[in-house]
Specification:
The chain has about 375 residues and is mainly β. The chain is built from no helices and 35 strands. It has 2 domains: about 280 residues, Neuraminidase, CATH 2.120.10.30; about 90 residues, Immunoglobulin-like (Sandwich), CATH 2.60.40. Strand 20 and strand 21 form a beta hairpin. It starts with a strand and ends with a strand. The N terminus is likely disordered.
Amino acid sequence: MKLQLLLVTILFSSIQSFSQPPVKLSSGQFNFIEGPVWDRNDHIYFSDVGTRKVEVYTVSTKSFSTAFTSNVRTNGLMFDKNMNLVVCEFQGGQITEKSTSGTLQDTYATGFTNPNDLCIDKKGGVYVTDPNVKEVYYLSPGTTKTKTLIDNSIEFPNGVIISNDGKTLFVSDSNNYDIIKFDIDLNTGLISNKSVFATLTDTDNSEPKSLADGMALDTDGNLYVAAKKSIQIFDTSGTLINTINFTENPTNCTFGGASLNTLYVTTPNDFYKIDFSGVTGFQHPFDLPETSLSVNEKSKDFQFKTFPNPTYNHQIKVAVGENEITEITLYNNVGQKIKSYDFKKTSNIIDINLDPNLKANLYILTIKTADGNMSSSKILVQ
């Protein structure tokens, strides 16, 4: 049996204490916005459904602009590995791939009623919700993009997202308060074992429906759900750990910014941000390197300590006990490999000199032992 990559939080205790109030970044100029996505650079792209435009928020200049105008209404967006936008053409009934300037690259699938939201798995397969007909689809990876109906049992399937390890699909139901989860077959992309992951809280009893919509994840696996006048946050067990209140109904959310610690939130007419301390957003399952998606069960017996943590001089010590270490690798906060380190062990301690140009941020240090065990821990560079 394999386990999800262990990301041990040693600096921060509870997410509840570290979120700032929502900050409105716009002035009511949008018609109905949805589908925010971070481009890993300086921009958040999102759909203005009513105006048929894909808009851009530039983080460094705190300004808005139009990326392109579509001939149909668009909704959910997601970047693929090549940093092209995969687009839910809500009005056109199809899933397309476009450049950030709007040039059509590919048409993945047609024949949807109103495709609403989507997410992309590590292989390039795409999960799509079509809520007006109660359907969830999977588009297979590769050039064929075979379209398969995988569920039609949710009353109004809206937001959809894949867990950090790629093994679980979460779907929100706008008409009801349960967040549904399915097991993902990693070979076929198909789903099974439908169950309730978490139950939303009614934050506005003037509306009987939950209005549950888009979702986001952080690197600890906490799930952020846009719902009725709130962002509700659940830990990996489905326990509600925080509720961030809004005066209007959030439609979707995504982490972005250089440190991936800002949650950007769309509401019908406005664009918001919520800054977190001690939280790092997660983008896609394909952000994690192949070798670090899961580790051998024996890794439960191997843990290490890093100190000082945080480090101010880019030098850290790692206490590994009597374990024989074969590999030490540093990843950024979305799991992309930065560097493997040469090392020498002295009295069960390993000294690592990080690159002095490594910017202040949260990183993931992964250590592998001679018998195949692997463990990971977060380190903070200041």
